[in-house]
Amino acid sequence: MDEELRSLTERLRRESGATAAYERLERTADHDELACVLTESGQPLWARELAAFRLGCAGDRRAFEALVLLLNHRDPPRCASAAHALTRLDDPRTARAAAALATNELRVAYALHPVRLLVDLRAPESVPALITTLRRRLRPHDPHRRVALACVEGLGTLADDRARPVLNDALAHPALAEAAVHALARIPRQR
């Protein structure tokens, strides 16, 4: 069993109280049954998360909207499992949605997983969104250093020359300087 799935199932089993409904959702191979959980009213969050995760990992695009909502949840384990499933979903809307979440200043406290997802996706939207998010984090006394650090590291992973100016600006921030040096070193020099 994949580590992310094991972690998710243990967490949701506890959250659900290990009910028969949980056991049924964990075992079913019927994608239509899982998709119904996403649209039926009154379903608990744990059931929606489990159904969305399983559908997303199976490549069933009916899970897209639920996974995007979970990617922007206040609970980091829900965000992490949604990001994991979204990388496997292979839906062309994913990068655009992750970029919108990563650059939304009203939800920046929850942008860590969308930023990491953008790096994993390596989509055309990834570098511009990470640059925008990082530039905003370079303001004095910004409280979202983890998001800023994820942007710096992600831009180093993506190694796109467009990131060079914002990474140079990040060198002036002690909490980001070392990571910025490493990120800049990964970007090939233009000739």
TrEMBL record:
Record key words, sorted: Lyase
Lineage top rank: taxon: Bacteria
Record-listed E.C. numbers: 4.3.2.2
Coiled-coil ranges per UniProt: none
GO molecular function, one term: lyase activity
NCBIfam families named in the record: PRK08937.3-1
This protein's name: Adenylosuccinate lyase
Organism the protein comes from: Streptomyces asoensis
